[in-house]
User: What shape does this take?
Amino acid sequence: MIAYALGFAYACFGLGLVMNIWRIFRAPGVTDRVLALDTMVINVIALIGLYGISTGSPVYFEAALLFAMTGFVSTVAYCKFILRGDIIE
Amino acid sequence: MTQQIAEIAISLLLVIAGIFGLSGSWGLIKLPRLMMRLHSPTTATTLGVGCVLIASVVRSWFLEGTQTWHEILIMLFLVLTAPITANFIAKAHLHRHREEERDLPDSGTGRQWATFEDESLSVLPEMTKVGPPDR
Assistant: This one.
């Protein structure tokens, strides 16, 4: 039963990732692209978590934590660049 | 018996996570304005990831017998940072569309948005005085 639920969740998050990539290519503004990248990071964290569940090894959660931190810092840096044209003033 | 209940709980959590994650990414495409689109990744997708991580916690506790807290850490980090990124993106959007005013929603208070209001009163960064060293 867990295998079917895992397959469903994999399909959902993979489809979400494809939607985010489509959004990055066809976006009305640059802030939309930043938002799509942020969503992509969250979806990838979910995929790493699902992979950790399906293999049963706890190693992947360090990778997920690293992804979360890098995604947050990169989103803030992008927004700062859009706002001020500079990241570290 | 406990194992069966744990398996049902994990499956339910994974299905809920998939639905929430998909609806978050779908809302990112479907909703008409950016201020609306901000909500779908920051709430729905974060909830989906949270359900995946709770499923992983339940699995390692009840099916493997090991007690882990890594997943709770990731969830805490995501929940703490999602509003900050949303706030940053909203501020960047407001400042980019200030001139044309076409995509900005009404602030609902009869005044303009707070990020524009105190620009004359804002604190400018001050350079520290460069002098000879104390030594």
Remarks:
- The first helix of chain A runs from residue 2 to 25.
- Residues 45 and 64 of chain A are 5 Å apart (CA to CA).
- Chain A touches chain B through 51 residues (CB under 8 Å).
